[in-house]
Amino acid sequence: MRVLIVEDEKEIADGVAGILNGEGYNTDAVYDGEDGLDYILYGFYDIILLDVMLPGLNGFDILKKIRDKGISTPVIMLTAKSQVEDKIQGLNLGADDYLTKPFDAGELLARIRARIRNTADLSENVLSAYDISIDTSTYQLKKGDKAIKLSKTEYQMLECLMMNKGQILPKNTIINKVWGFDESGDYNNLEVYVSFLRKKLKFVGASACIVTQKGVGYSLNAGV
Question: Could you tell me how far CA 154 lies from the centroid of its own chain?
Fold first, then answer.
């Protein structure tokens, strides 16, 4: 599980990261709002811990921007404020939970586990975007009654695009997600697998399509 911590108090952010790393989570920590937004837009996280009072962009601004872009990653707001109005504002903007600082480490871990349980569809194992879905256990790409099997690499790429639908993902971001630092992960291989996926989307009759942003990267769009 990957967790992003957006918290301007470095000691708190690094302390929380240490606790989560000790529990087996992979964590990134950033200390201002603009970096936090960039990490959310171009990273891949299972949950976000988002402080309200941040330099650059505050937590409410970040939350509104990512929800407007269709990013549904669970967000737990962190704040030194305990006013009901702040909690209402955060929840109305799409926050999933709220913790007032200082908080107990055990409570934070419990809240994270609860959010992850609530978002994991263990019975269906299906990820959907626009008019397509993929079975995360069998790697089956489906549109209506038509289906085709994806390779592991194809699945990882399409999952990446589906989880960030409508957003342009830079080529390096996709390469790092799918291949990591493996030497086989280069621009040529990326283009080859995009071609494979386009053919399979066409095979199932999907309107959803992979769009090239020349010189930048790719996005999954609704199509026509």
Answer: 18
Q: What is the DSSP letter of 95?
A: -
Q: Is the pLDDT of residue 114 over 80?
A: yes
Structure tokens at 201: 């989307």
Structural domains of the chain sorted by starting position, each given as residue range(s) with its CATH number in brackets: 2-119 (3.40.50.2300), 126-221 (1.10.10.10)
Contact assessment for residue 93 and residue 64, using Cβ atoms and an 8 Å cutoff: yes
CA atoms within 13 A on the CB side of 9: 14
Mean pLDDT score of the chain, rounded to an integer? 86
Helix (H) or strand (E) holding 29: strand 26-30
Better pLDDT: 154 or 69 = 154
Task: Burial-class residue 170 by CB neighbours within 10 Å (0-12, 13-18, 19+).
Answer: middle
Cβ neighbours of residue 105 closer than 8 Å, sequence gap 6 or more = 16, 19
Average pLDDT of 132-147? 91
> Cα–Cα distances in Å, from 193 out to 6, 186, 198, 211?
33, 11, 9, 13
Between strands 47-51 and 75-79, the pairing is: parallel
Q: What is the mean pLDDT of residues 39-62?
A: 89
Q: What is the pTM of this model?
A: 0.59
In angstroms, the CA 4 to CA 8 distance is 13
The tokens of 131 are what? Answer: 């008019």
Please check whether residue 7 is in contact with residue 28, taking contact to mean a CB–CB distance below 8 angstroms.
no
